[in-house]
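Input chain follows. Return structure tokens only.
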Amino acid sequence: MLEQLIPARRHFDGADPIFTANAAANKLAATGAPVINAAMGALLDDDGKFVVLDSVMVQYRQLAPMEIAPYAPIAGDPKFLLALTQRHWPSLASYGAGVATPGGTGALAVSARNLLEPGQRVVTAAPFWAPYATLAVENGLTLETVPYPAAGGALDVDAWRAVCEDILRTQGRLVLWLNDPCHNPTGRSLSAADRQSLMTLLRELTAHGAVSLVLDFAYLDYARDPQTVRDALDDYAAFGAEGTVLVGACLSLSKALTLYGARAGALVFPWCNDPGLFNALATSCRGTFSNCARAPMSVLLRMMGDAESSAALAAEHAHWRTVLQQRADAVDAALRAEGLAGTEWAGGFFITFDVPDPKAVTERLTQHGVFVVPLPETVRVGICGLRASDAPRFASAVRASLSA
């Protein structure tokens, strides 16, 4: 009887590769065995402790009861939405049509529910963050993929065009989820030339129907070169201001403020003030999570309004950017020392390395006490939880797993 009541698509066997890898790593570590857990998705220090940004906690501890306890507005505090938008585009005077969401995941879910109809397709670049597929299924969509540029390669415009034109022919609208800059899981970013090629393509595609570009920002504060992030954001702003393509952004405090558990973020369309779009987004908020927590909104407002706090946060981001760069460079050097292809890292918590059979290699790595996340196209390595000093052992295990 129970099987008849629960829709098959909601059956979850706990086999999510990220959770599975972390559970196995923790189980082995509990025995005292040496473990390299590169399946992590949160920032850890070199002692394996969860990184909490002190500048953020200072403000969190100062929150007054009325900054925590009352309901936040259904669509989110407008001051919070503007402040979060201005973290990315300081010159904007409005967040346009936008709502607060439970992190970037909530923003993606709201975009799926409002920009497409059940039975339609959403497109993203592969390899991709695995929950994209879950978000698509939960909203009755099919996830289609286009190839993310290979390291040192250029955007395959023809491949992207073929997929996108097919989608527009069948459903009359296109929604692209684009995680850039600091792409999860590759750790790379689109080049300036790739961005321009993509924007040109999207402009051309509007001849076949409505086109929406939904930018998924999560790791921008942890880029090797912050100027490349600024350049990308400015390019996307200019593109959005054209008004030909609907451009929105999924914004989050999870990684930026290491407030993963606060589940605070937003979906904003800064270059669109359509009341109909806002009402649709707000209705989805009410019909799913009702409203978001007020406390993290209050924290961001405090930090954005305090020059000393902002400077302290920037200093902490600079420190952890350096740590991540050192880890990425150490892994790259260690892989090359083993005679393997290295990796490129532009920013974020992850890197990838391509292997013939990601799942098999991942399983063999566990025999060496090394845990990573297999994806259909590649293997994801969480440098957010991997010490630079572990790089030689990690690379040696990779070489052994490839030759087994």
